[in-house]
Design a protein that fits this description.
Distance between the termini: 12 Å
Radius of gyration: 20 Å
Number of strands: 16
Number of domains: 1
Strand order of the largest sheet: 3-4-5-6-7-8-9
CATH architecture: 4-Layer Sandwich
Structural class: alpha/beta
CATH superfamily: Ribonuclease Z/Hydroxyacylglutathione hydrolase-like
Order of helices and strands: EHEHEEHEEHEHHEHHEEEEEHHEEE
């Protein structure tokens, strides 16, 4: 995969039909700083923020509580899959108890793995990655971040809206949303105040029919291993999402081609309707695996994750996907792998090895 050296931008010579049908995404397709809106932001920051220097850049420290261009945390990463433009965007980080990881194994074994990986012994820092895809005339948001649930304290998550804006991506330009599943960290961002009003009235939201049926009924939490508060928050978010976006849902049975080279495919396991998104163009391939793959899942694909509603099936599907990706050597992106998460899978005896991709400048 090669890095794009151009941008998708609003054209000043759009035809009347283009203006009517679609506002083009202004998505910077390199990994440099995005300049859109810079002057206005600089003027405002120079007056309001004493930490801003005369060039409009932050001194030494980031300001996580201030939306704007002074954030120093890497939060977007662009690449190409053949003719398809792809941008991984970070929604932030979830801090969760380490017992969520491999809750079916001896705690001493889990602790040894964490120590071996130089990870804290008592907390998991889960990345939250979403993806924006441009194929043909479609601009597709794959997963929508966590949003903000009043019952949970998640100060480092829910950043997707401001980071899409910083990348020059107007929500009004998004033609389709694909949800890998309906856990709140994948659909909650669409429930943030003011978001729905900014979306296109003809927006299509693609999600597996098994998923909407599961959350529209009495979802089974008997086999999960979640921190207190999360089951109620997940139920609450899913119900509200189904109520607010019912008319825009486009459920599919097994798979659906959203745009040329963009195929969403139901796998089940993590949730009954969990899906992955397969991108293919010009001999290049990339899979967005949603929550099928976590960092520990390469070396220990049989370790259960606390958010899996059917952990045995999730492990079976995970092994099958990792074998496929290792065999065809395609790239992998997943929600909870460290940003930007672009990597490959290698076979390592009876298990697998995570091979992070080189940074594309």
């Amino acid at each position: 995969m090669q890095n794009s050296q151009h941008a998708i931008a609003d054209s000043s010579t759009k035809s009347e039909q283009e203006e009517t049908n679609m506002r083009k995404t202004t998505m910077s397709l390199d990994n440099t700083s995005h300049e859109r809106g810079y002057k206005d932001e600089h003027t405002r920051n120079s007056k309001e923020n004493p930490k801003m220097n005369t060039q409009g850049t932050a001194r030494k420290t980031s300001q996580p509580d201030r939306p704007g261009l002074d954030e120093l945390v890497p939060s977007r990463y662009a690449l190409k899959v053949g003719a398809i433009d792809v941008m991984v965007v970070s929604d932030g980080v979830l801090s969760l108890p380490e017992s969520m990881l491999g809750h079916n194994v001896d705690p001493a074994v889990r602790a040894a793995w964490l120590e071996d990986k130089f990870l804290p012994p008592d907390v998991l820092e889960w990345a939250l990655n979403a993806v924006v895809v441009r194929s043909g005339d479609r601009t597709i948001l794959i997963d929508a971040g966590i949003g903000a649930d009043p019952g949970l304290n998640l100060p480092r998550a829910g950043k997707l809206g401001q980071r899409l804006q910083a990348a020059g991506i107007d929500l009004a330009s998004v033609t389709d949303v694909v949800l890998t599943h309906m856990h709140m960290d994948h659909c909650g961002g669409l429930l943030v105040d003011g978001v729905r009003e900014r979306l296109r009235p003809d927006l299509r939201i693609h999600v597996a029919a098994f998923e909407t049926k599961f959350w529209g009924g009495r979802p089974d939490f008997s086999r999960v291993h979640m921190p207190p508060g999360f089951p109620d928050a997940l139920r609450r978010t899913a119900k509200r999402f189904l109520d607010e976006y019912d008319s825009q849902l486009r459920p599919f049975d097994k798979e659906y081609e959203v745009a040329p080279g963009v195929l969403v495919h139901r796998t089940g396991g993590h949730t009954p309707g969990h899906s992955v998104v397969r991108l293919a163009s010009g001999g290049d391939r990339l899979t967005f695996a949603g929550d099928l793959v976590f960092q520990v899942g390469f070396e220990h694909p049989d370790w259960y994750n606390g958010f899996e509603h059917d952990p045995e099936e999730a492990a079976r599907v995970r092994v099958g996907l990792l074998r496929e990706l290792a065999a065809n050597r395609e790239s992998l992106v997943a929600t909870h792998l460290s940003f930007p998460s672009v990597c490959h899978v290698a076979v390592d005896g009876d298990v697998f090895r995570w091979v992070p991709g080189p940074w594309e400048y």
